[in-house]
Design goal:
15 strands, elongated, homodimer, 16 helices, alpha/beta, 447 residues, 37% helix, 6-stranded parallel beta sheet
Chain lengths: 447, 447
């Protein structure tokens, strides 16, 4: 127990920092009643107090110099809400080295440097906790280190980026193009002016890297994760998904296969019957398959000030009571204590696939395509090719181009890529083919 | 930490007991690696070893006399998986008084005697943990005492009985009558030969009583919970729900209202847009609304040997490491430390309602009904009355009876009951009217 050393220094007073300070200050009594701890915010450290002032926090808490908070012997917990991997890393390291517990919501920092920071924490006999780093207010990190501790985790499937899920929901429900859906997300405050980190899939990759490490008890090499975002997705493919009984979701997948661990972020076709297909708008969800529990799913708001602050404060409460150190010291899931994962590359994955090939309406092309798939030992499950309905007559000189939509049975991705290379070099193929993986309901083993 | 006193005595080797012993024995290394603890099963206490023998457990673990396990100074944890409220209560009290921590999956025991047992535990400086008592393998009890600890919980909505949800799913998807759907559940091992505890709603009531106590930090009087099961549900109403855009679910509801806490178990119409409407077959889910997180939902298998054993073992691991005592001693959510809830009766609830009134096809009846609702300050939202399609001509002498389906805006249940009493006494009304509450998506406050 920390007893006389449980004051809190909060570093970074943006959206999450402001909400966290609000929760600690305004709901002080509620938190004391529920946690059994007095959670005392002593410092709000930031370079710029304008947001903190707007929120009406007492100026007596403002401090520009982190060192003042680190030198205060009554401060036991530093809450890092700066974001990014440069300044935030330095702050976290300095806090740990000063013997302060760290609570952080920083997924990029943890995805890249998690194991090292945990090592630094242990060397200084303190802890790092990070419930808020993945899926905002949903206590999914706790599920991995505590609630599901009796399970061998077999697979994780996450919709962990609200911006992407909102954009995809707009495309599916309203038939909006990617560009229009992105604009709608920006208008509604659900996408940044520069949305790259979200729509590129990188933010989802950060989160699945953190969760996969705890789930599989392996160090994850973030740079080895194949990442594909939604920014290259065509409305046409979203519509075909719907016709075929699927929904397109940006899935962060981590899957223990015989050959190794497959971690990837990808737009995926998922059956309408799968619970993840229901998750719409800015909501997030993580499906976890354990050998004893089977499928459990955790659903909620994966971003936003208050939901994320809820997770930050749950970590502060556990740290202040000395409870979290029990998990941190005992449990075998932390990435500093385990070996490197054997991560599979894209080419080693097997999956079902959807393929859209743009072919000029010339006889024999489908036969050529089928035979190329056959040569690469890929078995076709369904073909959809429709008659043109008189469109594009203004371009009478050009060849008429029609989409041929093919789904294939479980295949090696290396074979798929080789086959599509050949197909795309056919004279009758007018554009680079689109390939999207189809994710089936993961089988439950139940012991 | 328990150090030299962490051996486990398991009492009751039925479905859950067998699965728990299996997990502890077969997955010993996995559990040691993940929990950081050696979890040593030392005794399987039961009156009848036949199931334990079938499962191939070593006979050296079998013990008929609980006292032998309680007298063993190396036993630190007693796992009560006997069920019921008589023998199980005695076993739990004896274990606590012998200074053993108790882990239990027994919802009936906790719903009736939870606060007293927790008091007994504290008096003996040990703990009682009960993750497995609600929603099987889904770590929802942990969400209430840990993951969502920074929240004022505003409402809980649970689908917490897999048998009922399976039966309702059969009725909705296959148009099966209640009786046929129950038979299907029994054939598939999803309902007991005597299904009363499940279909009456009592099992769901046990679970919501336990969860509501932690959520609202109040002692719950189990006997004051209005409980209605699915055993009186007509297929006709399930079909009308579908036509009106709803799904019928047996909901266990706990809701903090201004006047008090409303806890109830009821078949309810829930909008197809609500995530709980998606939960089908034997799956369970609990929606929790917190003032900071907004809506989070926890989904998975709410029953069955292995999923429940997963929850039991997570409690064993937390207890063995001494982590759970941190929660048990610090957190303010346990029902022994709080005051009595002010529980609302059915009559005090306000809700929207669906009503089906069977009226003989006589002129003026709808006007009479409307005016009775009006007199009781109930505002009608929609009316559905269809022409008869020539059915029942064999009963030419009888009056033709048609269903009049009415939905009403938010109303006091006391007013509804009074209005329906009057309506049912009209000459033109041929049978007791059916009233089912309509549950809207709970508003999120987000701070």
């Amino acid at each position: 127990m920390l007893s006389r050393k449980n004051k809190i220094a909060l570093v970074g007073c943006g959206t999450v920092g402001g909400a966290t300070a609000n929760l600690l200050l305004k709901d002080r009594e509620l938190l004391a009643a529920r946690t059994g701890q007095s959670l005392d915010l002593a410092y709000i450290v930031d370079q710029d107090y304008s947001h903190a002032k707007e929120l009406g926090f007492p100026a007596s808490l403002f401090e520009r110099d982190l060192q003042v908070a680190l030198d205060d012997p009554e401060v036991g917990i530093v809450v890092e809400l700066v974001g990014g991997t440069t300044v935030a890393k330095e702050i976290t390291e300095r806090a740990l080295e000063a013997g302060k517990h760290v609570v952080t919501a920083n997924k990029a920092l943890l995805a890249h440097h998690g194991a090292d920071l945990i090592e630094t924490a242990r060397a200084n006999k303190v802890t790092v906790s990070f419930e808020a780093s993945c899926a905002g207010g949903i206590p999914v990190i706790r599920a991995l280190y505590d609630g599901l501790v009796a399970n061998r985790i077999e697979a994780l499937y996450g919709i962990v980026n609200g911006t992407c899920n909102y954009i995809l929901t707009e495309m599916v429900h309203r038939g909006a193009t990617y560009a229009d859906a992105l604009k709608a997300a920006q208008r509604n405050g659900l996408a940044e002016a520069d949305p790259t980190l979200d729509v590129s899939g990188l933010d989802s990759a950060h989160k699945i890297a953190i969760m996969a490490a705890l789930a599989f008890q392996r160090r994850i090499d973030f740079d080895a994760i194949p990442v594909q975002g939604i920014d290259t997705l065509h409305l046409q493919d979203v519509m075909y998904a719907d016709r075929l009984g699927y929904v397109v979701k940006l899935l962060a997948i981590a899957h223990q296969e015989e050959a190794g661990i497959s971690i990837r972020v990808r737009p995926s076709f998922i059956s309408r019957e799968h619970p993840l297909a229901w998750v719409s708008g800015p909501f997030n969800a993580v499906s976890i398959y354990g050998h004893a529990t089977g499928h459990t799913m955790y659903y909620g708001r994966g971003a936003g000030g208050m939901p994320t602050a809820s997770a930050v404060v749950s970590d502060i409460a556990g740290t202040a009571a000395g409870i979290y150190s029990g998990f941190f010291e005992n449990r075998g899931v932390w990435p500093d204590q385990v070996g490197d994962a054997h991560q599979l590359s894209n080419r080693q994955i097997t999956s079902r696939y959807y393929v859209r090939i743009m072919v000029s309406d010339s006889p024999g092309t489908l036969a050529q395509i089928s035979s190329i798939f056959g040569n690469h030992r890929i078995s076709i499950a369904s073909v959809l090719q429709e008659e043109l309905t008189g469109a594009d007559e203004s371009h009478g000189e050009e060849r008429q181009v029609v989409p041929v939509v093919i789904t294939v049975h479980e295949s090696k991705e290396a074979n798929m890529l080789a086959a599509l290379d050949e197909i795309d070099s056919l004279d009758a193929v007018a554009a680079k083919s689109v390939m999207i993986n189809i994710v089936d309901e993961h089988p439950e083993s139940l012991g």
